[in-house]
Amino acid sequence: MHRRPDLPAAVRIWEVAPRDGLQNEPSVVPARVKAELVARLVGAGLTTVETSSFVDPAWVPQLADAEEVFSLLEPLRATPDHVHGAALHFPALVPNLRGLERAVSSGVRDVCVFASATETFAWKNLNRSRDEVLERFVPVVTEAKARGLGVRAYVSMCFGDPWEGPVEEADVVSVCERLLEMGADEVSLGDTIGVATTGQVVDMLDALARAGVPARRIAVHFHDTYGQALANTLTALSCGITTVDASAGGIGGCPFAKSATGNLATEDLCWALAGAGVSTGVDLDRLVETSVWMAERLGRPSPSKVVRVLAQRSQGTRSEQ
Ligand code: HMG
Ligand code: MG
């Protein structure tokens, strides 16, 4: 297999199905199913699995059981070198100091704050102005770093906003700069409603590079509303990005932006990268099995074509045996 010369030799996948996927479900998935999902994803070779959110349960009842999920995962979290010798990470979202305290009490080692490039979504998602959101993250990030935690910062609505329309690159750049200055290890550029195109991705990454933000501190997070998430992700990889977010089975969305649909399916990403000679460490068959298992629990098939085709193929192989 020849590697596409414009792509990195290896990609770090930041798996978000248990958090981004399950936060948007109409029903609440039991904690033991969530914990099993995380364990299966690790078993498939994913080493960073965003597990839950310590947000106000009144806002996101689907993830109100974050403590219970982390407690069920204690045995798995106690085996840090479980997969291919790589350390495992189980990040969780924290919206404020209260969330950080809850996360720390649950033994969480990696937290994510989440800001917005636009004013309207800051209010919808965090009930504060864009600037207040950033100001309130300063003590959260400072405290998390003082405790030695990993800190990622999401920036939502980087490529378009359902209320405000087009988003200025300068706004995205300045929010990213402020989050990195306050101490975040990396920023993840969220295309919350899945409207980005490859040209926009190149322009945004160019703007960040011109502002002096190194590619190693940027991740990308594409939702797939227009079916462009994979193209956008590959474009970002060809611009030097090496951390990409994806969700097993393509589940995902945001309860506070109704036009948000599923994330890039991890299976679509792994299929494409395997075909381009890029290493991910993921066992695609086990991952598909996991997404089919999860889809049965959610009561509807995965939107990912790769999942559907590979699941049918493995069923066909079993019935031929
Ligand atoms: P608020 O109502 O302004 O909060 O919400 P508050 O500070 O006024 O507190 C209200 C009550 O909530 C208080 O209770 C707090 O204690 C409690 P009371 O004293 O009245 O009994 N509270 C909490 N309880 C538990 N854990 C907490 C917590 N914080 C407050 N952490 C707040 C502000 C930020 C809390 C709220 O807006 C919130 O929780 N928002 C979360 C929204 C969310 O989770 N959105 C989805 C994730 S972001 C996303 O999906 C995008 C992403 O995928 C990237 C992309 O695609 O773009 C990351
Ligand atoms: Mg998202």
Characterise the protein shown here.
The protein is an alpha/beta fold. The protein contains 13 helices and 9 strands. Strands 2-1-9-8-7-6-5-4-3 form a 9-stranded parallel sheet. The radius of gyration is 18 Å and the shape is globular. The mean pLDDT is 95. The chain binds 3-hydroxy-3-methylglutaryl-coenzyme A (HMG) and magnesium ion. Magnesium ion (MG) is lined by residues 20, 190, 192, 221, 223, 252, 254.
Distance between the termini: 29 Å
Describe the strand arrangement of the main beta sheet, using strand numbers: 2-1-9-8-7-6-5-4-3
Q: Which radius of gyration do the C-alpha atoms yield?
A: 18 Å
Into which percent range does the helicity of residues fall?
40-55%
Number of domains: 1
Protein topology:
Blueprint lengths: L11 E4 L1 H5 L9 H13 L4 E2 L2 E2 L12 H7 L1 H4 L14 E2 L3 H9 L4 E7 L2 H8 L3 H17 L3 E7 L12 H13 L4 E6 L6 H13 L7 E5 L6 H10 L4 E4 L19 H10 L8 H15 L6 H16 L1
Parallel strand pairs: 1-2, 1-9, 3-4, 4-5, 5-6, 6-7, 7-8, 8-9
For this entry, give a set of tags.
TIM Barrel, binds magnesium ion, alpha/beta, 9 strands, binds 3-hydroxy-3-methylglutaryl-coenzyme A, 321 residues, 13 helices, 9-stranded parallel beta sheet
Provide a compact summary of the structure:
The protein is an alpha/beta fold and 321 residues long. It has helices spanning 17-21, 31-43, 66-72, 74-77, 97-105, 119-126, 130-146, 169-181, 198-210, 229-238, 266-275, 284-298, 305-320, and strands at 12-15, 48-49, 52-53, 92-93, 110-116, 150-156, 186-191, 218-222, 243-246.
